[in-house]
Design brief:
446 residues; alpha/beta; two-stranded antiparallel sheet; 12 helices; 32% helix
Length: 446
């Protein structure tokens, strides 16, 4: 089922980045069948548990500036280094931005990869590439949402390979669908369950969990029987499995609506006020808190899309006032919370965007697109902590050490989740598509 989905995010391409399509809850809850579930259980019984049992993937959409956050160059000319100063962290020799003081106190809990590099400088195309590992077949600025109509995203791959652990969907997006986060040719059963509202709102609720008002159980049962009869007629008429598939999706939606476990996980207002304040009453802060709750309840992959990082003008006031304080508080609170609950060891947390920013500040006091050098943060899930991997030149324009690309990141993340990244699936037209096409596990990270 497809439903309208609203989001008014914009980036420099001038196109309103509305998510025109939202895949409804009835199509998002994992293609669970009894044979498939038994296969998954048998496989799990014979395998060693993976280092990461879940992944929280925080995507800073628009392109966070490596020079002003994680890879400062204090000895560079003013037009390169900008006004921010580096500060020491609790890891000897590691310096980050002065506007990330909370993160500086927990540098022993994450690793900074400073030598991530690729050559896609577009927002939509870069997002697609980072989430799928495959180049987009459309120009940047295209308004199709989600934009990966062929290649599955990392969340959809994890959904297909690992399946659900509980009644919660295995793959969730918030506070809206990730542009490159769709299921591609895997089909809507591996699309994300999308939380449409922002958990910072006082009246936040997941609408798809709301029971139908004014409808008795008997009436609901009659409707289910009627639907089953219609689906059977459609199946006989067309000889196709679409009706059966949709019936499965409807059942998943009904299961979710009746799940007390799911209701508890989504009920962020049950958290102690002190905990909510620690994360910060911002969209990113409360999304990170909700992500922890969902992982704790059994979700496999939570993708958080945080927009607003496309700073072509007046980058520094925006970073100081809004962006960096929100990331600093939310990210540090998430890692501390996971660690205190004994969850960080088996929860992989990734913080990245689709690109970095240009070394030279432009005429409008901003930084432009720059994918050739970017910093990514990894924590938990078997990742070695307290490190800086890789280095860039004196302007943070290009890696001076071995560069690592998108395929390397995806292969590493999925390896930590226990996924065989050498597997290949065929598209409906019979074309073989590897889970990851190339790449390697990043040396020294795990």
């Amino acid at each position: 089922m497809f439903m309208p989905f609203g989001s008014s995010r914009k980036t420099c391409d001038g196109v309103s980045r509305r998510n025109f399509l939202r895949i409804g809850a009835s199509g998002l809850l994992g293609g669970l069948s009894l044979p498939w579930l038994l296969e998954m259980q048998a496989k799990a019984a014979t395998q060693q548990p993976a280092p990461a049992q879940a992944c929280i993937f925080i995507f800073l959409e628009g392109g966070p500036s490596q020079l002003d956050m994680w890879d400062l160059k204090p000895d560079a000319p003013a037009e390169v280094r900008g006004p921010f100063r580096p500060i020491r962290t609790n890891v000897n020799g590691t310096m980050i931005s002065e506007h990330l003081p909370l993160c500086s106190q927990i540098a022993n809990k994450y690793t900074i990869l400073r030598s991530h590099s690729h050559n896609d400088n577009g927002h939509n195309t870069g997002y697609h590439y980072c989430m799928t590992g495959y180049r987009a077949d459309f120009p940047d600025g295209n308004t199709r949402m989600p934009n990966n109509h062929l290649y599955p995203s990392i969340g959809s791959i994890i959904s297909r390979e690992l399946g659900p652990k509980t009644t919660l969907p295995p793959y969730i997006n918030m506070p809206h669908i990730m542009a490159g986060g769709g299921p591609g040719f895997y089909g809507s059963e591996h699309a994300p369950f999308v939380i449409e509202s922002n958990p910072v709102a006082a009246d936040f609720e997941v609408q798809d969990l709301r029971p139908l008002e004014g409808m008795s159980a008997a009436r609901q049962d009659r409707r289910r029987r009627l639907l089953a009869e219609v689906e059977e007629l459609e199946r006989e008429r067309t000889g196709q499995g679409r009706a059966r598939a949709m019936s499965t999706y409807y059942q998943r939606a009904r299961d979710l609506m009746s799940s007390q476990e799911a209701r508890r996980a989504f009920d962020i207002r049950s958290e102690a006020e002190a905990v909510r304040q620690t994360y910060g009453y911002t969209g990113l802060g409360q999304c990170c808190l909700l992500a922890r709750r969902l992982v704790e309840a059994g979700c496999r992959f939570v993708g958080i899309d945080h927009s607003g990082w496309d700073h072509h003008q007046t980058i520094f006031p925006s970073l100081v006032k809004d962006m960096l304080p929100h990331v600093d508080r939310a990210y540090s609170a998430l890692l501390n919370d996971l660690d205190q609950r004994g969850m960080l060891d088996n929860t992989l947390v990734v913080l990245m965007g689709e690109m970095g920013r240009t070394p030279v500040i432009n005429a409008e006091a901003g930084r432009d697109h720059w994918s050739m050098a970017q910093s990514i943060l990894f924590s938990g899930g078997g990742v070695r902590r307290g490190q800086v991997l890789g280095a860039t030149d004196r302007r943070a324009a290009a890696p001076t050490t071995d560069p690592f690309g998108v395929e390397d990141v995806l292969r590493t993340v999925m390896n930590q989740m226990g996924i065989d990244t050498t597997r290949t699936y065929n598209t409906p037209l019979g074309r073989p598509v590897p889970i990851v096409d190339g790449g390697r596990i990043i040396p020294g990270l795990v």
